[in-house]
Design brief:
The protein is of the alpha+beta class and 332 residues long. 27% of the residues lie in helices and 27% in strands. It is built from nine helices and 15 strands. A hairpin with a 2-residue loop joins strand 10 (232-234) and strand 11 (237-244). The model is unreliable at 80-97 and 124-141 (pLDDT under 50).
């Protein structure tokens, strides 16, 4: 299967020597703009959001970014080798399974799957030997039928979908085991609330077709949580970095922070150090069907002005002269 090269740097609008901070800032800006929950043109935004997530997935990971950079102008030759090694193309696996091609499910392109992902995978379920009466069936009265292979793949899920649950249309292209011709089926998969990273969603009977009347296999979709501009998910807990001015950290403040369902006012205690985690109970992802949710952890990040005005610099200098605080000897 031919694939198109993806320029992830162009997707995020950054240079090839962009820093990790540049990449993070570019992703957050674009993700807010094209998030399917806020964009007016949801179909176009969803495709753009997937492209942004794919670029971020590669460029924010040092190993994936190094591999991507090494592809360079020779990516087509590397792609041919990857295809021979088992990229996303039609082929029969050694164990009798097959490779399958998804559309509208993984959220990642064929280029990504070929170099950085697993793509769709099939697993053979084995043969069933059904005995009939003398003279019936094939091969001396025995007829063999083969259940369809189970199919495994990834599905890109937003945190909002994990919170509320959602329905997703899946297009699955597979080869008919008896004719070898490609078949495409489109159906709906339900994403349950609390679908966290790595969870498997099962769609019964949506796997490979059986042979000789064998039952179809199942489709198993592993949840891949889409990167979010404001939150990082760790299990059912969410983490949000909150930038604070030095005086807010020293004196305390009341700050509006985002949640998956809106905003809330959070009290910042006086003397909050950088890295301190403030816990907000019940603002994470669903834990169970009883409605319990994980927590939101707001992580303090103290920022300093990099270009103070003349008046600000004078105030900082006055503070430096009068303050007895020494961060290297905090008790002095």
């Amino acid at each position: 299967m031919a694939v198109d090269f993806k320029d992830y740097y162009a997707t995020l609008g950054v240079s090839r020597d962009a820093s990790d901070t540049d990449i993070k800032q570019a992703f957050r800006k674009l993700a807010r703009k094209y998030h399917p929950d806020v964009a007016q043109d949801k179909k176009t935004a969803e495709e753009k959001f997937k492209e942004i997530n794919e670029a971020h997935e590669v460029l924010s990971d040092p190993d994936k970014r190094r591999k991507y950079n090494e592809l360079g102008a020779d990516w087509q030759n590397a792609g041919a080798a990857a295809g021979r090694a088992g990229g996303p193309q039609w082929r029969a696996a050694a164990d009798g399974g097959q490779e399958f091609h998804f559309g509208g499910s993984t959220g990642f392109s064929d280029f990504f799957e070929q170099f950085f992902g697993g793509g769709g995978r099939g697993r053979s379920a084995g043969y069933e030997n059904i005995f009939r009466g003398a003279g019936g069936g094939r091969a001396g009265g025995a007829e063999y039928r083969m259940p369809g292979a189970d199919i495994e793949g990834d599905i890109l899920v937003t945190l909002e979908e994990s919170l509320h649950g959602a329905s997703r249309q899946i297009s699955l292209q597979r080869a008919n085991p008896e004719t070898g011709e490609a078949e495409t089926e489109t159906f709906t998969v339900r994403i349950p609330p609390g679908a966290t990273e790595g969870r498997r969603i099962r769609a019964r009977g949506k796997g490979g077709r059986g042979i000789g009347g064998g039952d179809p296999g199942d489709l198993f979709l592993r949840v891949r949580l889409a990167a979010h501009p404001d939150f990082e998910a760790r299990g059912t807990d969410l983490y949000h970095d909150l930038e604070l001015a030095p005086w807010e950290a020293v004196l305390g403040a009341h700050i509006t922070v985002p949640t998956l369902t809106g905003t809330l006012k959070l009290r910042i205690p006086p003397g909050t150090a950088s890295g301190r985690q403030l816990r907000v109970r019940g603002q994470g992802l669903p834990k169970n069907t009883a409605g319990e949710r994980g927590d939101l952890y707001v992580v303090a990040k103290i920022s300093v002005p990099t270009e103070p005005t003349t008046k600000e610099r004078a105030l900082w200098e006055e503070l430096a002269r009068t303050s007895q605080f020494n961060p290297r000897h905090p008790t002095s």
